[in-house]
């Protein structure tokens, strides 16, 4: 294999025969692909020197097709006759009974580096369960689309929920393995943790030609670009007067509503000189929701420089712009304030917006927390930019 070839953590595990002779539990889904196009689970099941004893799936299920917030039942995995335990149903972390008989637990999930994307919370639960069971845990690493700039408020423990369990900002700029190391350090977790880093990943936001095939980790994250824009428009889950066309062709990359006029909004956003992003008029027809089939005057986000792009800061500018142009009532009517605060990990963003605080001022309030976070984050990073 060429020295510069890219390998995920799982590819390295398989090539190095890590886990030989073990009874393995694997936390994964169909989005965790290997270089040869197998899912991590199938590649592990094919091994002759170990036994895949159980699978565990996050939100959206192992097959990645369940909707946001949809509870998943545990089942027997088709063909392999092994249990597939749901970690997004009756339980959010493995039980002692789930782990009984296992000698090794492995996590291999395609994450986004976003606190409110619940695969991070699943990792938290698995870390805690492995620590309690004194079960060795391996986290196989994968890339994230925005690995450079942490962004957004740190979690206020008063607003902790399954869309925010870890003491990190909304945009973590950490891969799954780095996140596991960070949590082990800040929580002083007594867990037998090993991380298997990627090979040939120079902390880049761009997908390479030798990467595994892209498989959506959830229905709304259809592409790498949707994953990168996710935190800029995820507020629409709590502010349903605006849609991000979650089930459309460009989920999270667009936003619109019948009352939004893109030619009015775009100049206001451009005047803010937000780094790393451009805005375009993009009419679209949602295929679900109250405006299904209706042509909306949408705004499309294009990330021009992922190294400078701050998605959470952008989300606040979008909300402030819509509120200024169209009024608080139009934007916030039917909002889910409790869920908004859980997404952002604080009520300060929502209250500041309603008070009319400038978006730049709101974002500046995150900086002390981000500096504290970056001090620890810099000590556990596994990869440096090229």
What would your notes on this structure say?
The chain is of the alpha/beta class and 386 residues long. It folds into 2 domains: 9-218 and 375-380, Rossmann fold, CATH 3.40.50; 224-355, Aspartate Aminotransferase, domain 1 (Alpha-Beta Complex). The protein has helices at 9-15, 40-45, 96-99, 119-133, 176-187, 224-233, 262-270, 311-326, 328-332, 337-344, 348-354, 359-364, 367-380, and strands spanning 23-28, 51-57, 75-76, 83-86, 104-108, 137-140, 151-154, 169-171, 193-196, 254-255, 277-281, 299-303. Strands 3-4-2-1-5-6-9 form a 7-stranded mixed β-sheet, sandwiched between helices. Strands 10-12-11 form a 3-stranded antiparallel β-sheet. Helix 4 (119-133) packs across helix 5.
Succession of helices and strands: HEHEEEHEHEEEHEHEHEEHHHHHH
CATH architecture of the largest domain: 3-Layer(aba) Sandwich
Structural class of the helix and strand makeup? alpha/beta
The gross shape turns out to be globular
CATH class of the largest domain, please? Alpha Beta
Helicity range:
25-40%
Rg, nearest Å: 21 Å
Largest sheet: 7 strands, mixed
Mean pLDDT: 96
The CATH topology of the largest domain corresponds to Rossmann fold
Helix count equals 13
**Through-space gap between termini:** 21 Å
Q: What's the name of the CATH homologous superfamily of the largest domain?
A: Uncharacterised protein PF07075, DUF1343
Number of domains: 2
**Strands, total number:** 12
Identify low-pLDDT runs: none
Strand order of the largest sheet: 3-4-2-1-5-6-9
Oligomeric state of the chains?
single chain
């Amino acid at each position: 294999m060429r020295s510069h070839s890219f390998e995920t953590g799982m590819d390295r595990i398989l090539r190095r025969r890590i886990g030989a002779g073990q009874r393995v539990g694997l936390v994964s889904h169909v989005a965790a692909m290997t270089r040869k196009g197998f899912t991590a689970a199938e590649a592990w099941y094919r091994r002759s020197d170990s036994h895949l004893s159980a699978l565990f799936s996050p939100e959206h299920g192992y097959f990645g097709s369940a909707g946001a917030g949809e509870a998943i039942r545990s089942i027997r995995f088709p063909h392999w006759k092994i249990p597939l335990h749901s970690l997004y149903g009756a339980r959010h972390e493995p039980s002692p009974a789930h782990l009984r008989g296992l000698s090794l637990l492995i996590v291999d999930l395609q994450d986004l580096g976003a606190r409110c994307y619940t695969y991070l919370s699943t990792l938290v639960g698995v870390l805690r369960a492995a620590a309690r069971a004194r079960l060795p845990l391996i986290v196989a690493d994968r890339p994230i689309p925005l690995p450079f700039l942490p962004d957004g408020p740190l979690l206020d423990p008063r607003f902790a929920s399954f869309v925010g369990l870890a003491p990190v900002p909304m945009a973590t700029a950490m891969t799954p393995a780095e996140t596991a190391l960070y949590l082990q350090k800040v929580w002083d977790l007594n867990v037998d943790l090993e991380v298997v880093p990627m090979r040939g990943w120079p902390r880049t936001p761009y997908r390479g030609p030798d990467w595994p095939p892209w498989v959506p980790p959830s229905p709304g994250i259809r592409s790498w670009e949707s994953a990168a824009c996710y935190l800029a428009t995820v507020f629409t889950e709590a502010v349903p007067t605006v849609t991000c066309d979650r089930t459309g062709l460009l989920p999270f990359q667009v936003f619109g509503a019948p009352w939004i006029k893109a030619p009015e909004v775009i100049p206001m956003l451009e005047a803010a000189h937000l780094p790393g992003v451009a805005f375009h008029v993009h009419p679209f027809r949602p295929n679900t929701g109250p405006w299904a089939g209706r042509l909306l005057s949408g705004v499309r986000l294009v990330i021009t420089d992922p190294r400078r792009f701050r998605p959470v800061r952008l989300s606040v500018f979008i909300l402030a712009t819509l509120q200024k142009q169209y009024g608080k009532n139009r934007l916030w009517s039917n909002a889910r304030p409790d869920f908004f605060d859980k997404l952002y990990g604080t009520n300060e963003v929502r209250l500041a917006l309603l008070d009319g605080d400038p978006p730049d001022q709101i974002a500046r309030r995150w900086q002390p927390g981000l500096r504290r976070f970056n001090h620890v984050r810099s000590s556990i990073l596994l990869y440096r930019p090229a």
